[in-house]
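User: Can you predict the 3D structure for this chain?
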Amino acid sequence: MKKLKIGYIGLGKMGRNMVLRMQEKGHSVVAFNRNLEGRKDARKAGVKKVVDSLSELVKNLPAPRLVWIMVSHKGVDEVLDKLLPLLSKGDTIIDGGNCFFEETVHRAKKVTKSGFRFLDVGVSGGPSGARSGACLMIGGEKKDFIRLKNLFADLSVPDGFGYMGGHGAGHFVKMVHNGIEYGMMQALSEGFAIMKKSPLKPDLTEVARLYNKGSVVESRLVGWLESAFKKFGVELDDVSGAVAHTGEGEWTVKSAKALGIPAPIIEGSFQFRVASATAPSYTGKVLSALRNQFGGHDFKKFRTHLKINRKKSKK
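Assistant: Here is the predicted structure, written as structure tokens:
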């Protein structure tokens, strides 16, 4: 199986772990992060070749080049504006972050019109999945998907990647995945909040353990909840009851309305997170704990951010 030389931009929790997996699978990676601290952390973590500029990254790649971008949706256009002038026609760009699919469709038209190849890849599994094998949802031209199937196989769990359709389809399917995730997490959190309030006082850690042993709701989410209870305690005292939210849930709600499809569960779970900023609760604590367990999200930082914003709003 032919191994590739890949340029990789974005060395946060997901990106750094994905690069380590690429290296482990025999691929050669030239990595870059816009923030100096991120470059230092990547080197310490074992990323073999970290460069200090996009031009250096491009110079270290053979033509036709392959560059994977793993930055926040707000940073993609900035990266593309700086990267495209350095590339040559026929080079391939992969956007592996969480982006609103309509923006991805627009970017794909811009990039391909200039003579480049473009794929959008939704990545599920969190930082641990990026390191040990993720689930990849891929959009773009099918011939490009087929050309890079071996890379996708190396980055995913067995049979954990698939072609979703044309440009934007990968990010669209990942967006809906995250909207569904919102609803599943909300139901789980509400159920455990009900049990905590009950006079019967069941041991919630034991309930989570048992739910994950052959029950209908057995899932990775329940397993992460059991881990959260073991880590933080059932009271979740150090966990914020105000829940951070990313664009994916909101985008799913927006898309559902545009398509005329009722999505009350997903919309309700998104609105709960928005309202939690001023109405924290135990349900919110469970959600924050789950986000921390599967995504490494900093729940304490979010809580501090909310306090600062409240103080400013009172002035």
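The longest strand covers residues 156-165. The radius of gyration is 21 Å.
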